[in-house]
Automatic annotation (TrEMBL):
GO terms for molecular function: symporter activity. Signal peptide: none annotated. This is Alpha-ketoglutarate permease. Belongs to the major facilitator superfamily. Metabolite:H+ Symporter (MHS) family (TC 2.A.1.6) family. It is a multi-pass membrane protein. Residues 1-221 form the Major facilitator superfamily (MFS) profile domain. It comes from Pseudomonas jessenii. InterPro entries: H+-coupled_symporters, MFS, MFS_dom, MFS_trans_sf, Sugar_transporter_CS. The chain crosses the membrane at residues 42-61, 73-92, 123-140, 160-177, 189-215.
Length: 221
């Protein structure tokens, strides 16, 4: 079972990693310049909705299975559901058309590595922004559920409910902020995100130690 779990997690990570960048690129290329932020935001909408579905499955399993059953064989159920969804995604992928931007670039016959080397500053900027955004996202979503249980001392059911509620709020905010970036530009949004995330993440995690209600934790997160 441990080997099977490790293999499933590796396969899951490779699949998400491969799809993460390509889906973001596809959405940005298919969008018009005036609405690029809005349409690109749906990459995170779909990502968060996937996490919400996973949490919904977890809540159902927690209510119908004992802790022993969940750890013994119940954990296999979400992976089985994910495998079926992967087959559907593969089928949909095969029917998708390439964007006009990609088709033009493909005709240029320039290697991806050469393109990256010609823009070192832009490359490092994208890497830095991606690192910061990914760290913040997984801190407040995936890691937060474990933090509430292992560090704050909340029950698994309460932490799952809080995570589901915060994820739903995050999902609803994505198109709003994406549309706002089309109006005022990406730079102000990114600067605000960087400053607020740097200044408030540690105080929020520290303050969560003193929270005794689920709505208090939800408000902080």
């Amino acid at each position: 079972a441990p080997i099977l779990l490790v293999f499933a997690r590796l396969l899951q990570g490779l699949s998400v990693g491969g799809e993460y960048g390509t889906s973001a690129t596809y959405l940005s290329e298919m969008a018009t310049k005036e609405r690029r932020g809005f349409y690109s935001s749906f990459q995170y909408v779909t990502l968060i909705s996937g996490q919400l579905i996973a949490l919904a499955v977890l809540i159902v399993l927690q209510n119908f299975l004992t802790t022993e059953e969940l750890y013994a064989w119940g954990w296999r159920i979400p992976f089985a559901i994910g495998a079926l969804c992967a087959v559907v995604a593969l089928y949909l992928r095969r029917g998708m058309e390439e964007t006009e931007s990609f088709t033009k670039k493909e005709k240029a016959k320039e290697s991806a590595m050469r393109t990256l080397m010609r823009h070192p500053k832009e490359l490092m900027t994208v890497v830095g922004l991606t690192m910061g955004g990914t760290l913040a996202f997984y801190t407040y979503t995936t890691y937060m559920q474990k933090y509430l249980v292992n560090t704050v001392g909340m029950s698994i059911s309460d932490s799952t409910t809080i995570s589901a509620a915060t994820l739903f709020l995050f999902m609803c905010l994505q198109p709003i902020v994406g549309g706002l970036s089309d109006k005022i530009g990406r730079r102000p949004i990114l600067i605000a995100f960087g400053i607020l995330g740097t200044l408030f993440t540690v105080p929020i995690l520290t303050t969560l130690h003193t929270v005794t209600t689920w709505w208090g934790a939800f408000f902080l997160i």
